[in-house]
Amino acid sequence: MTPGKERDIVCGTVAENFVLIPRSEALRLVSIHKAINHSKTWGDFKRQLRPEDWQEVLKGFPTLADYRDEESFASDEEALESYHSLRFGERMPIDSDKFKPDWVPGFSDGDWPQWPAQQALNWVPAKIQRQFGKTNSSALNGSFLKLDPQRAAEIIAAMEEIGYVCERNDALVQSASGH
Questions:
Q1: Rounded to 5 degrees, what angle do the CA atoms 177, 9, 101 make?
Q2: What is the rounded CA–CA span in Å between residue 122 and residue 24?
Q3: Is the peptide bond before 101 cis (omega within 30 degrees of 0)?
Q4: Which of 4, 59, 73, 155 could form a disulfide with 78 if both were Cys (CB 3.0 to 4.6 A apart)?
Q5: Band of the pLDDT at 6, cuts 50, 70, 90?
Q6: Rounded to whole angstroms, how far apart are CA atoms 168 and 153?
Q7: Which of 48-52, 134-138, 153-157, 175-179 has the lowest mean pLDDT?
């Protein structure tokens, strides 16, 4: 579901910021962070992700087609064998490859998975953003919605007044935010 269309919201405090997340997105992000933190191989990681999240990860790796374009091979089998003999990083991960979180494209930079406080800029109603928040900039990852945790009850009431169902769940929101 697209953030902003879902009315079931979880909210909580993360690093001195009050964060709002559509429940389905929070659960998706928690599963990604769990996979990142508990996988031993790339196969483990792949099995724990939704197919669309796995495809997003793969965009950061060179494909067999990219490799074939740079080299010439007598057959598809020869190309595949040569591609699989490349070191990790020069090819897509194979299920048996050792997994380290920093090897996930964008993870170390904070670009993947998505950052809920940043996503909030795209779906939290402008009225709520104007009344309770401000747009802050991080040193590396761009702008995000900053909401004062001291005003959590007011923010929840305002969101519910316009049709959202909000549940305070700090642990879920922190996990979805990678904390």
A1: 20
A2: 16
A3: no
A4: 73
A5: confident
A6: 10
A7: 134-138
Express each pLDDT in 144-169 by its tens digit.
Answer: 999 999 999 999 999 999 999 999 99
**Token output for 18:** 């009050």
On the 0-12 / 13-18 / 19+ scale of CB atoms within 10 A, 52 is: exposed
User: Residue written as tokens 């996990």?
Assistant: 175
CA distance 149 to 18: 5
The DSSP line for the chain is --TTT--EEEEEEETTEEEEEEHHHHHHHHHHHHHHHH-SBHHHHHHHS-HHHHHHHHTTS--HHHHHHHS--SSHHHHHHHHHTSPTTSSPPPTTSB--GGGSTTTTTT-SS--HHHHHHHHS-HHHHHHHEEEEEETTTEEEEEE-GGGHHHHHHHHHHTT-EEEE-HHHHHHHTT-
Domains of the chain, by residue range, sit at 1-39+110-179
